[in-house]
Amino acid sequence: MAVKPRRARLQQRWTQVWYRFPMLRLVVLLVALLLLQAVLFWSCERGHNPEISSPLEALWAIAVFVFSGADFTPVTAWGRFLALVGIVEGMTLVSVLIASLTVWQLRGRKGVTRKMKGHIIIVGGPPRVRRLIQQLQSPDLKTVRPIVLVADLPQNPVPDLRVKFVSGDPAQDETLQEAGVEQAYGAIVLADLSCPEPDARTLLVALAIEHLNPEVYTVVEVVDPRNVLHFRHARVDEVICLNQFSDYLILQSMVSPGLSRMFRSLLEFGEGDEVYRVVVPSTYVGWTFRDLFLDLYQQRGMILLAVERGERTIINPKGEFRLQEGDALFLIAPEEPSSVLQEA
Questions:
Q1: Same domain, 53 and 143
Q2: Residues 6 or more apart from 17 whose CB is under 8 A from it?
Q3: Which pTM was predicted?
Q4: Based on the number of CB atoms within 10 Å of its own CB, is 2 exposed (0-12), middle (13-18) or buried (19 or more)?
Q5: What is the mean pLDDT of each run of 10 residues along the chain (344 residues)?
Q6: What is the domain extent for residue 283?
Q7: 251 within some domain
């Protein structure tokens, strides 16, 4: 196999770099334009303007016209014309730069989110996504994770909430990869109620996420309770059916007035103690639910609500219910109890 000459290899590499980075082409074009204007300015002003005695001084003068405006007055008519062109170029350059930065911020910064790790991806649009992001950014959370919003919108709908934004179809692998789904901690998929079949759309997004990263913790919103089983088959971690929850909550609030306010206080961060889920520490394996309830309440001011074992969640188990390895606890606590329990 013939080896390419060094000059040919360098030329090929330069060609790849030239077409890969459009900003490089813009910088080269700007430098070339400044050099051309400097040569023309020097040709017009030399012999007439004592301040322009060399091409370098002409280049400096053009640079001043472009980046800061008129600093001195050229002598010749063509010199004044070139100075005016330089001033207009500078104003245009600043306007283009500001517009580019604005579009870059609103439409999402390509490549930035691909390098993120341990973040939460949210698929959805305003106005509900704003409330959700505000809760996830609450200072009451011990671990506040970075957030990447994915929506099929031309610009970021919540640019004031310090979230990264990726514009595109969330059901497409390329869009999710741009959001860094392979290194994400979790994903929240809200139902798009503007679609004729919101659950079908949500299912496509969930399947794409689980395909790219089966380890991501996925929470999806479902509209029709009959579709919950399909999402279980897609191996999502949590399925929230708001219609089903609202029916239960309305019924229970009628039986026990004020229950809805209690649930809202528990579920909103910053409103008193919160509900947390933690894996049972090895030191508590073998304890009865009653003994652990009393110990946590008396020693740490926490209230033990329920135990999760496999696919079952057992609320306030009776009798000598003993904790096993792999169980998870649901607690009401003033702060995230993971580190506190590990010290026990």
A1: no
A2: 24
A3: 0.58
A4: exposed
A5: 58 65 70 76 73 73 68 70 71 66 53 74 87 82 84 83 86 91 92 89 94 93 90 89 76 78 72 80 90 88 90 85 91 74 57
A6: 273-342
A7: no
